[in-house]
What we know:
Elements: H1 2-21, H2 24-47, H3 54-67, E1 74-76, H4 81-89, E2 91-94, E3 97-102, E4 105-111, H5 116-119, E5 127-131, E6 134-135, H6 141-148, E7 155-161, E8 169-174, E9 176-179, E10 183-189, E11 193-198, H7 205-219, E12 224-228, H8 237-244, E13 253-259, E14 266-269, E15 281-285, H9 292-302, E16 307-310, E17 318-324, E18 330-339, E19 370-372, E20 378-380, E21 389-390, H10 398-405, H11 408-417, H12 433-445, H13 453-468, H14 475-484, H15 489-495, H16 497-523, H17 527-537, H18 539-544
Parallel strand pairs: 11-12, 12-15, 15-16, 16-21
Antiparallel strand pairs: 1-18, 2-9, 3-4, 4-5, 5-6, 5-7, 7-8, 10-11, 13-14, 13-18, 17-18, 19-20
Helix pairs in contact: 7-8, 8-9, 11-16
Amino acid sequence: xxxxxxxxxxxxxxxxxxxxxxxxxxxxxxxxxxxxxxxxxxxxxxxxxxxxxxxxxxxxxxxxxxxxxxxxxxxxxxxxxxxxxxxxxxxxxxxxxxxxxxxxxxxxxxxxxxxxxxxxxxxxxxxxxxxxxxxxxxxxxxxxxxxxxxxxxxxxxxxxxxxxxxxxxxxxxxxxxxxxxxxxxxxxxxxxxxxxxxxxxxxxxxxxxxxxxxxxxxxxxxxxxxxxxxxxxxxxxxxxxxxxxxxxxxxxxxxxxxxxxxxxxxxxxxxxxxxxxxxxxxxxxxxxxxxxxxxxxxxxxxxxxxxxxxxxxxxxxxxxxxxxxxxxxxxxxxxxxxxxxxxxxxxxxxxxxxxxxxxxxxxxxxxxxxxxxxxxxxxxxxxxxxxxxxxxxxxxxxxxxxxxxxxxxxxxxxxxxxxxxxxxxxxxxxxxxxxxxxxxxxxxxxxxxxxxxxxxxxxxxxxxxxxxxxxxxxxxxxxxxxxxxxxxxxxxxxxxxxxxxxxxxxxxxxxxxxxxxxxxxxxxxxxxxxxxxxxxxxxxxxxxxxxxxxxx
Length: 552
């Protein structure tokens, strides 16, 4: 009770502090514009010629207003609150499977390993026809998802169609509390190098990292550690800080939050003794590493506690807090910016300054500032985290985005799986030319078309040349270029075979061996991992990374 009273008092004081910062003019403007909006809405509802969907119009207005701020400030109505809680806690009660809407059908995108859906035999690609007798025709994935969830130990009966089979199937699945472990995979590499793949930061991620690390250290005898946060979009910052505290001694500055309301600013330090404050560390990052994963990598870099390997991170340094709204809704609102120990902010896009068309741009290097790590190495703000060892990601051709957008990689593997019940393990599987040839034939049967930007640019150029009178003079050269840029599916599939084969193999691994299998396969030819392993195995090279470069 004392704690609840204290929290209530803090909230009251905080709200009064926020109100006190508003001038009389600001308060008048807010009141005036709310009165105008309220009166306008009433008049529309009373006199507009057609009936108005009040709920939809209100939600649309709210979404448009928030889009003018930044992508992370959003309104969460009561019906979407359960999905929001899953992303922050990693927990819910259901069957343990991802579902999606595809071509008007509800399909299993992938069951989670060891969860009720997988144990009941459901597979990726299964089409959900009925849930507890209710037909799913015309329903979206959110609607179906809510009906699959329920109290633990209750059952749900699912009628489904498996691709390649004529008869439908029916299965009864017992729901359970689903806890999505963010440590998808961990192992010992080269005998004594620990590896942990961390997919996100939920309310249990720090515990999972601790458990994995203690197992690696005690039972596998690892003497160095790699933490992989590639494709980790962030999550609960407190768990990120707790994870950092595993490797950083007590009392060190980890993170500062600064916003408009100074009373809500926060300074976070490591509060506990580290599990291991000296073990050599490497953090793997890529362009999709964002928010809390950038805090993890950036803080370890600023404190000269780990080397960072990979490509420049996303650059999200904005803090979101949840505010309660009427009728059980919530507002996830950007309230501050993150500053890591050197004092730099990792935010790469300035949403407060927009061009006339409403677009925003990245902060140019000329406007960034230099900061320094604990040992004096220069680091810059305003552009995510730049790794100590930059390994550029393989560029994906435009056609890959269309393959993924149209779900064709997934659809092929679902179809391919009906003919191949068993395949080699992720450690041994080989992506053969025969499999790729089957995929090419599959695409041709789908009449796959993809938007080629070079063709659009060429048509644009043709119009400009005709307008300026140069087209006739350069007609032969232009025709030759046109012929080279004609769509040719066979040519492009051969040209981008390496990139597409890699993605296809990962999709195969995911459908047969879940997320863990996909990671194991991907690590086999991973240049970032190779660089981290090489650096950790060379003590001189590892220590040299933290020495500032001085110029005479």
